[in-house]
Design brief:
Number of helices: 13
Number of strands: 0
Order of helices and strands: HHHHHHHHHHHHH
Pfam families: DnaJ, TerB
Number of domains: 3
InterPro entries: DjlA_DnaK_co-chaperone (IPR050817), DjlA_N (IPR007791), DnaJ_domain (IPR001623), J_dom_sf (IPR036869), TerB-like (IPR029024)
Protein name: DnaJ like chaperone protein
Strand content: under 5%
Keywords: Chaperone, Membrane, Transmembrane, Transmembrane helix
Shape: globular
Oligomer: single chain
Length: 304
């Protein structure tokens, strides 16, 4: 493990400059207590999580179990598990590249989670024993739960309550879960509009059916064979800005910085260094595609 000495070194230097040798030693101790020790503890926990999820297949299986058990629990909050929930669960299995045995494990866990006698507290305790304080894993689990809950385009009150309950018990704030929900809504809106656009473009090029392309959600400037300025519509553009986490009034430089920050956040190498498994990284790669598409749309509209 790479041990941090920054707090002690900086504390000693500052103490020596502003006081004396005794003060330098005191500042060095404070640097250890308030910087080095917490940093080293966090690094140790992350290293343990990495080893757990890369060196022992049983841990990967355990992660799949708890993740899909929570998915079943959240889906049941809608009143009944519907086709959208099942389709999203299957999609997540596919993206994660689960083999036949692991898919069965995931399905069994999902069914357990949706049952009346599912014990949420026991599952939360199991998650904490697996990942410790590695919040990268917590983020991953929470984002999947949000994807599942919104897969049918509706967030029922009980689904919302269960999402919040899971977030708080895993140590996340309600505000952060609200942000996950808003972000997923924006991504879904953005994805649907692009699907509508490509579907309408296909119909125009292949059927000549006289479809009205003046509508803001699907128009296309055929003369230039590219997206038109009005073709995206304000709703598409608004969603793109929200995905990047910036206002429409943001400068070009602010937009570029936001895009770079998010792409670095979801870069496979960075995710791997945080201890995420290959299955997790595959799912985040899908999220990075939406971020890139949103940036490309804004860039096209602004012409930079």
């Amino acid at each position: 493990m790479n041990t941090s000495y920054k707090g002690r070194v900086l504390g000693f230097i500052l103490g020596f400059i502003f006081t004396n040798l005794l003060g330098a030693i005191l500042f060095m101790i404070l640097g250890y207590l308030f910087f080095d020790r917490p940093a080293n503890l966090k690094k140790q926990q992350n290293d343990e999580a990495v080893r757990a999820f890369t060196s022992n297949a049983n841990y990967n299986e355990s992660l799949v179990k708890v993740t899909f058990a929570l998915m079943g629990y959240v889906a049941r909050g809608a009143g009944r598990v519907n086709e959208s929930h099942i389709e999203k669960s299957s999609q997540i299995m596919n993206v994660m590249g689960l083999n036949a045995q692991m898919r069965k494990t995931a399905i069994d866990a999902f069914n357990s989670g949706k049952s009346e006698n599912f014990n949420l507290n026991d599952t939360i305790s199991e998650i904490k024993s697996l990942i410790g304080n590695n919040f990268s894993f917590v983020n991953f689990i929470l984002e999947i739960q949000v994807q599942l809950a919104l897969s049918d385009g509706v967030l029922e009150d009980e689904e919302y309550r269960r999402l919040m309950d899971i977030a708080v018990k895993l140590g996340a704030s309600r505000d952060s879960m609200e942000q996950y929900i808003r972000s997923r809504y924006n991504e879904m809106h953005f994805e649907q509009q692009f699907r509508d656009f490509y579907r309408s473009r296909y119909e125009r090029e292949n059927t000549g059916s006289g479809y009205d392309y003046s509508r803001s959600d699907s128009s296309y400037d055929n003369s230039s064979s590219s997206y038109s300025g009005s073709g995206f519509g304000s709703s598409k553009l608004d969603s793109a800005y929200k995905i990047l986490g910036v206002e429409s009034s943001a400068s070009d430089d602010e937009i570029k910085k936001a895009h770079k920050r998010l792409m670095l956040k979801y870069h496979p190498d960075r995710l791997a260094s945080q201890g995420l498994t290959p299955e997790m990284i595959k799912l985040y790669t899908e999220k990075a595609k939406d971020i890139q598409a949103a940036f490309d749309l804004i860039k096209k509209e602004r012409g930079f």
